[in-house]
Amino acid sequence: MNYLRCIIGFTGLFFLSACTSVPEVSAQRPLIEQSQVAYTNAELLPESMWIGFNQAYEGTQFSTEYGQVLVENTYVSAMGRWCVAFSLFEHQDGLQLLNPKSDYYGNNRRACKDSDKWFFITPLMQNNNYKGT
Hints:
Structural class: alpha+beta
Strand content: 25-35%
Helix content: 25-40%
Shape: elongated
Number of strands: 6
Distance between the termini: 57 Å
Strand order of the largest sheet: 1-6-5-4-3-2
Number of helices: 5
């Protein structure tokens, strides 16, 4: 009888350990390609805006010749770059404008710093729809 309890105990222990083991997961295909993350399609922002972004934190507002900037959030990107989510509103006089206006002006814009330069970027997943098999 003790022999049977021992076998049942070991069998139960085996099943419990199988349920609690961590599965090994590996990707067959990367979520995004390295070439998609590069700033090859990003636009260099005017140097006059860099100082404001260098000192940015959530809620910061600063004025540039291109408009009024409101910093909504700061974060580190997946590539390890310092980034800012911001809104840009053109001045009433509209003398200096970034073009195309529809890209730069409005809410939920992004800029990331690479070395000492700031680049205007579009959120990655918004433009790169995966159409794989």
